[in-house]
Specification:
By secondary structure, the protein is an alpha/beta fold. The protein contains five helices and eight strands, in the order E-H-E-H-E-H-E-H-E-E-E-H-E.
């Protein structure tokens, strides 16, 4: 069993209240081996929601209290991102997931590259909060590229 970003399966849970449906991921889901989650929703954020970015570091820095997650309105949503990450970790441990298939660039799920915190569409190296927490707990995180929005 693997975790997957729910938005990749066509669930309208991204910050815009839309999704990043990926046909290949839907085919994998049909085999019954994927467990959909949205860490931001699990952490208590609404859908849709104000876009958020990590400021002052990356997802691991957020977990370690060295950086924060702030939304476009300047509201600190770090607690919600951390809470969602820990719920995702608990789910992964409960179902025995050893891997997560996550959407790229997200402040929660992004792996390898995330938005840089300036809200200008620029990127920096790093993982989102949930991706970092899962990796820290020996769960492989693979990023899936955005295909389309519906």
């Amino acid at each position: 069993m693997k975790l997957i970003s729910a938005c990749l399966l066509g669930i309208n849970c991204n910050f815009e209240g839309k999704n990043w449906k990926n046909q290949q991921m839907l085919e994998e889901f049909a085999k019954g081996e994927l467990f959909p989650i949205c860490p931001e929703v699990l952490g208590g954020l609404s859908t849709p929601r104000v876009p958020s970015e990590i400021q002052g570091g990356n997802g691991l820095d957020v977990i370690e209290g060295k950086a924060s997650v702030v939304n476009l309105q300047g509201i600190d949503v770090t607690d919600e991102f951390i809470a969602g990450a820990y719920v995702a970790l608990k789910i992964a441990q409960t179902i025995g997931a050893k891997e997560a298939l996550f959407i790229e660039k997200s402040p929660s799920c992004g792996c390898g590259v995330i938005f840089d915190g300036s809200f200008t569409g620029k990127f920096k190296k790093g993982d989102g909060v949930t991706a970092a927490l899962l990796k820290k707990n020996n769960i492989k995180v693979t990023c899936v590229k955005e295909e389309k929005i519906e």
